Amino acid sequence: MSLELYTKRLNEIVRPSGDVKEQLLSAIKDIEAKIEYLKEIIFLSENCEISHFCHASEDLKVRMEKLFEGVSKNQEQMMGLLPKVSPLHDVAYPVIQECEALTKQLRILEFAEHLSFLESGVLSARIINDKDTLIGSIKQYFSFLNTQLSTDPDILPSILEQSQQHETCLDSLSYLMTDFECLLKKLNFPVIISEVLEERGLQTWCDDDLQLFSNDFQALSTFDISHLNILISKPLLVDICFPMHIILAPMEKRFRYHFFGSQKTNRIDMPEWYMSQVLQWIRTNDYFVTVVDRDFISDKDNTPVSVRLQLMRGLVTLLLDKLHYDLGLSAFMPVRFGCQFQMRRSNSEIESCPMDSNPGNSSSSELLENAQNFSHLIDVILQTDAKLTQLAYPNDYPKPSDVLSHPKVFSRWLLLEQCLASDRLKLVLGNFSSWSVVDETEKRPQCVDDFIALLHAVGFRSRQLSDKISRARFVQIQLNLIREFFNYIVLSARRKFENDDLNDLGQSKNKSEVSNAKTTMFGSLFSARSRSPDASSETKKISIINQLFNCFVDGIGQQLSSRWIIVLNAIKCLHDVMLEWANDQYYVTFWEDLSTRALLQFGDPWLIDIGLCPLVTDRIVKESEQNEHENETFDELHSSNTYLGLHGGVFTQMLRLYDGEIKNMLKETVDLTLTDLKSKSLVYVYATDHWLRASSVSGYLSNTKSELSNLMMSTNASAFFLALRDWLYHLSESLHPKLFTHIWKEIASQLDDYLYNELILSNRFSPLGAAQLRFDLTNYLYPMFSLYTERPEPYFFQIRDACVLLNLLRGTAELLKETIIESVNSQQKHDNDPLGPLLELGVYRLTPEEALRILSLRAVLE
């Protein structure tokens, strides 16, 4: 009904309107139809949807009431049956418990019987001396135990009660171990004490022995270590295959003899001794295991185990246990590969890993507290990691550097890294030679190279960590150092007097000698990737350009010194380096990951908890925003990297901070330059008589060469142009090329405004004065900037256009003036465009109103 109503209404809207009476009748019908629809809803007629809903609700209510009545009746019946059923329950329940006990006993008997059957298989294989059958029987025995235990964990006590069968099986396993050990002795593998392999090593290995070794190794590798750990009290490592436990046992024994206990070779200040020993074992046995993997195991499909990788992983496990013990992360040094099986007697008699009985680790606290030993340990660990990588050790395997990611060790490492890096930064910046220029192209000072080397050292060490969060926290250390470098050099640049600067440098040098003697013990932290400022007695000479600049600015003031220029170049160079690093794949991963991005943007609470103050991000954001609002002149600096497609990434906040300071320093440099230029141009700018002097030629001058041949530079403009030349030359020779490009453009722009407002608009010009102004600009001002651009005139568009108007012939000027006035006052501006005549004369940037004002400055001399 509603659809018909809407269709009818739509037809009436589309239909052309007719008589008013018909429209009113139609509207009345529509209203009556709506009233009828509302009545159906109110009275719940059969055609209404709401009535169907109400009827369904009432039906559901009736059904729920019936259901509740049925539940109540059933409950009463159950309560009535309870007295009758209770005696039956008292009789049946003990019988049920007895049946369950008998069932359990029957299952245990069946289990024991099946174990006896499997034991007989092991004994039969042992009697007939069939090694393959024996291995299969033992595997079947342990697999059955694992299946039963996984099905019913409560059966473990019953399993442990069958000690006789278990001992028979473990004895047979020991028999296989003894046979494999005899084969290892025959092959002289593994080589523990380095001997001359050319005499007794490789040549004694025949293919039959190697084939026998590979067969036994593959057969024993099929044992599941987790199945064996069910019965023994000292579980074996699951990640190391069973035959490798046998191979590594003598190596572990010798390792523990030399590097554990009271032996002289066990020194916490010499971690390279035991790490080099492990690396030597790997290299010594590498040829043997490589040949076995390549020629005897690689073609077999029944085992994925690599002898070489298993050997390396087992030896690295010894390193990790030693590091954990020395650093105090574990109270005992576990015995990993001692294959002496001891039966478990109870469910609780099991150790997470076999431990040595020698308690007390007094060296752990000493190693962490001694900065020299701890820093040396970090160096050795990272070097060992690199050497393992060269030996094709897989990255997803445990590595010695994993110990460094432990919170206790990592917090100590971060604090030490931050402290030593800050001390090294002070040494770098406190050395006078650090401010010498080492690259005449980019005007890069030595301190930038030293600081980048320091950042490389910190970043290179963190790249070997496998934990992503730990690497991100090292990036935070780099950001803190970048901010510290920024604070120091900006403070150094803004010192008013050079004498104070030299005194501070002398004091810092004396302090650096003392602190250097203190931190030489920590020098190994940065020895590989950074240089000491006192390492060479021959320091580079300060650039001659800087010395000339010092002499040049003596008459201007001490605000802009060579240190100011060097610091500005240093900030720009480091800014470009950060932008390049931000788009490196290593740093891009931190920015793409939301968790690490949040840590770097908003700070890491964990760093605050350990006492390492992170970067104050809010302060940086406020400073950068303030700089952006104050300095809109050099916005091209911020957008100059857009065309390169580069992004700030993790260095975004630092780049904003550096951008803001570059803009500030450039603005102050330009202001100081303009102040000096304006002071020396006053005589030239306000020489009213000079611009109104009469011409020897009647009428206005034309553009012919004969009339301009007698013109020379204005005598009162020499000081201004010489100062401009010197400023541009010394700025171009001392500033970074990109910075100088922005500076000369800004100087040109501000000179254009200054000369236009103070010289042209403040004076009146005779024909000779206008010609003199054009001569000065064309032959002296523009050529100074032509060294840096092919067309300098567009940067002086106001004075260029003004000179064109001032040097027009009298008739042309009057006609142009009338045309502009007529065009401006005309109502039909499309037909009389005032810009047309200006564009024909070469005036491209001045408005018609400004052109009229310039034309009014032409003095008419009688």
Number of alpha- plus pi-helical segments: 37
Distance between the termini: 99 Å
* Shape estimate: flat
Task: Write out the strand line-up for the largest beta sheet, numbering strands in chain order.
Answer: 1-2
In terms of quaternary structure, the protein is single chain
Provide the residue-averaged pLDDT: 80
Strand content: under 5%
Extended strand count: 2
Whole-angstrom Rg: 46 Å
What structural category do the secondary elements indicate?
Answer: mainly alpha
**Major beta sheet summary:** 2 strands, antiparallel
Give the low-pLDDT segments: 196-203, 351-360, 496-559, 697-705
Helix content, binned percent: 55-70%
Pfam families: RINT1_TIP1 (PF04437)
Protein name: RAD50-interacting protein 1
Question: What features would you describe in this structure?
Answer:
This protein has 862 residues and is mainly α. Among the domains are: 162-194 and 204-322 and 334-345 and 367-391, no CATH class; 406-495 and 558-627 and 643-684, no CATH class; 687-857, Methane Monooxygenase Hydroxylase, Chain G, domain 1, CATH 1.20.58. Helix content is 68%, strand content 1%. Strand 1 (437-439) and strand 2 (444-445) form a beta hairpin. Helix 27 runs antiparallel to helix 31 (718-734). Mean pLDDT is 80; it is low at 196-203, 351-360, 496-559 and 697-705.
